Amino acid sequence: MAASKQVRSALESMMFVWGEPLAVRTAADVLNVSEAETKEAFEALMEEYDQEQRGIRVRRINKGYQFVTAEENGTYIERLCTPVKRRRLSQSALEVLAIIAYKQPVTKGEIEAIRGIRCDRVIEGLMNKDLVEVKGRSEAIGRPNLYGTTDAFLRYFDLEDIKQLPDIQDIEQVMELPEDYEDSVTMNQISLADMTGEGAAEEAAPHAAAEDADAPEGDEL
Amino acid sequence: MGYKVKLPLFEGPFDLLVYLIESARMDIYDIRVSEITAQYLEYIENMQQMDVSVSSEFMVLAAELIELKSRMLLPRQSADPDQAPPEDPRSELVARILEYKTFKTLSGYLSEREEHGFMVREKPQEDISQYLESPDEYLTLEMGQFVQAFNAFLLRKKRVEEIRTRYERIEREKITAEARMTFIQSLLRQHHGKEVNFKETIKEGDRYDTALSFSSMLEMIRQKKLTAEQKALFADIYLKEADPQGLKEVK
Question: CATH number of B166-250: 1.10.357.140, 1.10.10.580, 3.20.20.70, 3.20.20.370?
């Protein structure tokens, strides 16, 4: 217990100096304790700061932890540091980011197939902001770049890791049953099922996906 | 860099289509294709009338809608009643619209998260050099990252070297050949029409240098800028500035 308290205290000091997310592995190496113990100590610190409602909180970014200001004090910081720089991402940038975040690793062609419009500029902008990066190359023709999100993406949106994003299935369910149309949709689903047989709905999705994959090639003709 | 001008809300053809379907309060699983196609085309026409160039992507979807509309006119019963009837021609479009809407919804979520992100501040990395005895920079990298960076470094080095060797070689040859001719010409001028030993035109004395002087000489003979004379085999060659008389003859 005493050792663990010492570890927590050490981590606090290290985070204070480090600023950037401090990787669990690095901290464990420095302290010469196991990574599991280090992670546990980080989590304990995070809880401690939360419970005490301190103005500084511990935030996890992927496999690292850092000190940040408490969200509820954001407005005071803004009043202190005026004028505030706040450049929001454009709607198209957010759409492309959403696609990359959920479908990563993903090619530009796949992104464009979903949005139905070219995305070169947007992706370039997101790369410059370091929110996305090239994760590798696809085996498909032309070996296009595969894009994925970065730790800077997590920090920008204040996310612990990519799993913290809402489940895409939940979103799809909400979308498929909009409140306004609930009755008519249910009816239509029945009629659609009657008409096409039960397997048809399942078949439709992969078929559409295949069509989408062809789309970028068609574009260039 | 061109300018990117965006019209109000629509981020692309699907965005427009979704807007039209929603504002017509249409069920997405039962799109009235003919109605929505007409509205879509009307919107594009309006854009064109306002002299806004409509991007080709909007046209692609317009063409797809028209094709879909025509397919809706065809009877859909298959001849064999036992076989499952062919699927609704709209289902592919529906799947694509739903997928797009999913990500549009998610982009809304990200936009909310963005606000949260703005309210949380982090401190930039401290300058820790003051704590270091020798302020070396340490990289904390995963093995894979390190190997990747090192490979990238090697590749870049190789490329740069490749370019450099080629670049230098080309530059040296090109400049020296011209420079040598200029040098020979000025040498001849200095002697005011008197003969000059070919050996004097050689600077370094190595084989490349000799060959360069010799080929420069030949080229200058061809251009009638000088005359060369060799009294016997392997004897010294004497160069002389071409006499103006000879030049006139050429002209």
Answer: 1.10.10.580
